[in-house]
Amino acid sequence: MEFLKKPILTEKASALTEKSNRFTFKVEHKANKLQIKQAIEKMYGVNILAINTMVVNGKVKSRNTKGGLVTGRSPKYKKAIVTLAAGETIDYYSNI
């Protein structure tokens, strides 16, 4: 089972990377911290100091249509913030 879905490349995530050497990934909902750590170390060959995980709830979205107001939610997902050892980095584009 592949636990890493994709890296999160937002302004807030890049500021976190520049400031404190922390990288953000969208991960499988059932993955725990040990599985995430093993997957990242295997894929990128880095040493991980700490992992923080969180479940991000989806936002409520609504739009007007001919049939009236349609409301729904974007899907929720699990996010992992990984702290690397000093001097190490992850190149997201090396495995394309």
TrEMBL record:
GO terms for biological process: translation. Part of the 50S ribosomal subunit. Contacts protein L29, and trigger factor when it is bound to the ribosome. This is Large ribosomal subunit protein uL23. The keyword Plastid does not apply. The lineage of its organism: Bacteria, Pseudomonadati, Bacteroidota, Sphingobacteriia, Sphingobacteriales. Belongs to the universal ribosomal protein uL23 family. GO terms for cellular component: ribonucleoprotein complex; ribosome. Signal peptide: none annotated. Pfam families: Ribosomal_L23. InterPro entries: Nucleotide-bd_a/b_plait_sf, Ribosomal_uL23-like, Ribosomal_uL23/eL15/eS24_sf. GO terms for molecular function: rRNA binding; structural constituent of ribosome. One of the early assembly proteins it binds 23S rRNA. One of the proteins that surrounds the polypeptide exit tunnel on the outside of the ribosome. Forms the main docking site for trigger factor binding to the ribosome. The keyword Ribonucleoprotein applies. Keywords: Ribonucleoprotein, Ribosomal protein, RNA-binding, rRNA-binding.
